[in-house]
Write a structure and sequence with these properties.
Blueprint lengths: L6 E5 L5 H10 L5 E5 L11 H19 L3 E4 L2 H14 L4 E2 L5 H7 L4 E6 L1 H4 L2 H10 L4 E6 L1 H11 L6 H12 L9 E4 L8 H12 L4 E3 L2 H11 L12 E5 L8 H6 L2 E6 L1
Parallel strand pairs: 1-2, 1-3, 2-9, 3-4, 5-6, 5-7, 7-8, 9-10
Bound molecules: D-glutamic acid (DGL).
């Protein structure tokens, strides 16, 4: 009998869609639930204590309601702070999303990489550890931007955003000492790949050359495929569900539909 238990993706807002998309491409028959803690959004300006308490509790409720076969914390902020707490609390395989510093270091020729995340993520010891392990011979410049999270949310709601606002965000990296040498930027917040084109254009405007952007989405998709190898899926993926902790915003429905999420619910 086909196993119809879903994969459950969790983020504070719409950012986790950048992780869901490559997973959906790799596992097209997987039933999907996308959960956004819209009542707790944004996470990037919250304290470690708040996130460490909030995320495991919410995931516990979501796991009870949807009985997922696997949970993906599709949020760097929640993963770098609360991954251990969630794994200790739940008896479901958990995949986290952490800054893709390793692939960035493998790719950089200038040996100067940028890490663009939320303020909460870029100050985490988890990031110090990734930089020490995988980019010890690189200069790793960090910038936390709550503004870019808001811009990505606005774009997904169909708003037109002034390109100068992306320029201002990237100046936070390029204007640091040595910042002009950056050739690879880690999108260390799942919201940011959703505005990849605008970021790429802003980087080219600033430096007069292209900059590569990397994120964890494709690697996470491969990890999920490996962890679910041998499991069965429905013949046809059922419509995906998006669940919010506050009332769902109808302005998001078209974008969610593009990711296969057609049922909107509130937790
Ligand atoms: N998408 C989230 C991340 O990957 C957090 C955005 C926010 O709520 O500040 O860090």
């Amino acid at each position: 009998m086909a196993d119809d238990r879903p994969l459950l993706f969790f983020d504070s807002g719409v950012g986790g869609l950048s992780v869901l998309a490559p997973t959906r491409a790799l596992l097209p028959r997987a039933p999907l639930v996308y959960a956004a803690d819209s009542a707790g959004f944004p996470y990037g300006i919250r304290s470690e204590g708040e996130i460490a308490a909030r995320v495991p509790a919410l995931l516990g409720r979501l796991a009870e309601r949807y009985r997922p076969r696997l949970i993906v914390i599709a949020c760097n902020t929640a993963s770098t702070i609360a991954l251990g707490h969630v794994r200790a609390a739940l008896d479901v395989p958990i995949v986290g999303t952490v800054p893709a510093i390793k692939p960035a270091a493998e790719r950089s020729r200038s040996r100067t990489i940028g890490v663009l995340g939320t303020e909460a993520t870029v100050r985490q010891p988890y990031v110090d550890d990734l930089a020490a392990r995988f980019a010890a011979d690189c200069t790793v410049l960090r910038h936390g931007s709550a503004e870019l999270v808001q811009l990505a949310e606005a774009c997904l709601r169909g708003a037109a955003v002034d390109p100068a606002r992306f320029d201002a965000v990237l100046a936070g990296l390029f204007d640091q000492p040595g910042g002009k040498d950056i050739d690879v930027i880690v999108n260390a917040c799942t919201h940011f790949p959703l505005v990849a084109d605008a970021l790429g254009a802003a980087a080219t405007r600033a430096l007069g050359r292209t900059v590569a952007f990397v994120d964890g989405g494709p690697g996470i998709a491969r990890r999920i495929a490996a962890l679910t190898e041998g499991q069965t899926w429905p013949d046809l993926a059922p419509p995906g569900t998006a669940v919010f902790t506050a009332a769902p915003d109808p302005a998001l429905a078209p974008a969610l539909g593009r990711f296969g999420l057609t049922a909107l619910e509130q937790l």
